[in-house]
C-alpha cells in the first residue's frame, strides 16, 4: 500500500546504473541526468540519462574533463552545465565550467569562473543566465559569492553576495524569475542551517524568506514542479533526513508533503521533468546509493490495487489514468466517503473530467469492459 497525503505520491523507479554520492544532476527536455560523484572510493566520469516514459537509465557517455565530484549542476536553454567540484576523492578543487548538449551528447569546455575553485557550490538558471552560489574553498572556508555566467558571451560577472554567512551544500532553485538558496553548511556549530534566501536579478538583491521547516540540514536536494519548489533530504552530519516540503513563493509558505519514499541520504540529486520530480542516488548509512524515486503531484494513493496496469493521478481538474489504452471503453465513478455519487461516466481516452469538487476524501472506481472493478482513494485539498 502506498502513502497518501494531499493526493501526492512517491513512486519507486529503476535504480541509477551505479551507486553514487556527491553526484550532481539536471533535466533537459523529457530526460533527467546524473553526473559524476563517487562510489565511496573511486570518482566517476559517467553521465547517466533517465527516460521516464521507459523507466530506464542508460549511459550518455563519459565526461572528457578531469573526473569531478561535488559539482554544481543546472540546465539552461537545452543544455546541462556542470561547474567546479573536486578532481576525484580528496582531489584538487576545480573552477572549470562545462556544458553538455543533450541533442548531440557533446561536452564543451567553457570559461572558468574567476577566483579559487569551489566544491559543493549550488547552481540555478533563469532568463538565459546560469548562477553559481557559494561552496567550500581549498582553505576550508565558505563562500557567500554569487556569480552569473552568460553563455552568449562566455563571460562571468560577480553579483551581490549573500548578506549572511558563506555556505556550501545549499539547495538551489529558480522559480518565477527569482533564485532561491535553502539551508547548507554555514560553519555554525552543527554545520547546517535552514534559512531561505531569495535573489532578485532585476535589482541584484537578496531577501530573507521564511525558514524551511524541519531540522537544519546541508546537502539536501530540490526541484520545481507545478509552480512550487520542493526541498528535503540531506543531513546534519549525523542524521539523514527523509522529510520533504513544498514552498509557494507567492505566499512565502512552506507545507509538509509526504516523506520521501526511500531511505535518507546526503548529496541526493534532484531534478524535474514536465509531470514529476525525481530524487536519486546519495550517501546512505550503508554507503553510496543508486535509488531513484519520483514524486508525482496529484497522484492518487492506492486503496486497493488488484492490477498494476493502471496508475491514476490528478492533473488539475482531470484524473489521468496512466496505462488505460486508447479506445478502451469503460466506466468510472467518483464517490465521497458517505457513498454519494460525485461524478460518473464513460472513460475511453484515459482522462476523467473531475471538475470542481470540495475539499475532502473521495473514492475512484474504474470498471473495465469485462466488469472488473478497481478502486483508489484520493484527497482533494486545494
Domains, number: 2
The class by helix and strand makeup works out as mainly beta
Instruction: Report the principal-axis shape.
Output: globular
Low-confidence stretches: 1-7, 302-306
- Strand line-up of the largest beta sheet: 1-24-23-22
Find the CATH topology of the largest domain: Neuraminidase
Rounded Rg: 22 Å
Mean pLDDT over the full residue set: 88
CATH domain class name of the largest domain = Mainly Beta
Count of discrete alpha- or pi-helical segments spanning 4 or more residues: 0
CATH architecture classification name of the largest domain: 6 Propeller
Q: How much of the sequence is in beta strands?
A: over 45%
Characterize the biggest β-sheet: 4 strands, antiparallel
Topology:
Blueprint lengths: L8 E5 L10 E5 L2 E5 L10 E6 L4 E7 L9 E5 L2 E5 L13 E5 L4 E5 L11 E5 L2 E8 L5 E9 L4 E5 L11 E5 L2 E5 L13 E5 L4 E5 L11 E5 L2 E5 L11 E5 L4 E4 L12 E4 L4 E8 L2 E10 L14 E5 L2 E5 L7 E7 L4 E7 L3 E3 L6 E8 L5 E8 L2
Antiparallel strand pairs: 1-24, 2-3, 3-4, 4-5, 6-7, 7-8, 8-9, 10-11, 11-12, 12-13, 14-15, 15-16, 16-17, 18-19, 19-20, 20-21, 22-23, 23-24, 25-26, 26-29, 27-28, 27-30, 30-31
